[in-house]
């Protein structure tokens, strides 16, 4: 059974940092693309970042470039999202997802989400 479990969310002041983790099980982790998404109340879900297994490249939304960094540990089957210089507008539920084709295009599995709240 494929499972994705996010952790690391919490409450932080603006300018602070958090590191989210996405622990994966039930599949060959290094073959998949893993992405981070977020959804704020009343807003649509948006893509934040992705790491592609097909070419090893990383992708970021313009709103987080230079502040967020995605990385993976294939031994631990875990993808991280290091979030620095957090802003109140980063407040959202953050989800990780897996693309079995590895291209960061079509999302086959989702985690349950972790709440990030940034206070001003």
Model description:
With 120 residues, this protein is mostly beta strands. Helices cover 0% and strands 51% of the residues. It is built from no helices and eleven strands. The strands form two sheets. Strands 2, 4, 5, 6, 9, 10 and 11 form a seven-stranded mixed sheet that branches. A four-stranded antiparallel sheet has the order 1-3-8-7, with no helix packed on it. Strand 7 (68-73) and strand 8 form a beta hairpin. It is globular, with a radius of gyration of 13 Å. The chain starts with a strand and ends with a strand.
H/E element order: EEEEEEEEEEE
SS-derived structural category: mainly beta
Tell me, briefly, the overall form.
globular
Contiguous low-pLDDT stretches (5 residues minimum) are none
**Main sheet specs:** 7 strands, mixed
**How far from one another are the termini?**
40 Å
| Mean pLDDT across all amino acids | 94
Query: What's the total number of strands?
Result: 11
């Amino acid at each position: 059974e494929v499972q994705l479990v996010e952790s690391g969310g919490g409450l932080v002041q603006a300018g602070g940092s958090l590191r989210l983790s996405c622990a994966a099980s039930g599949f060959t982790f290094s073959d998949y693309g893993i992405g981070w998404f977020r959804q704020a109340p009343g807003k649509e879900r948006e893509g934040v970042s992705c790491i592609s297994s097909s070419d090893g490249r990383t992708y970021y939304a313009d709103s987080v470039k230079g502040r967020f960094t995605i990385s993976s540990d294939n031994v631990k089957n875990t993808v991280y999202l290091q979030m620095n210089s957090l802003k109140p507008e980063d407040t959202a539920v953050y989800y990780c997802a897996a693309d079995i084709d590895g291209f960061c295009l079509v999302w086959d599995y989702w985690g349950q989400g972790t709440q990030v709240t940034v206070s001003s």
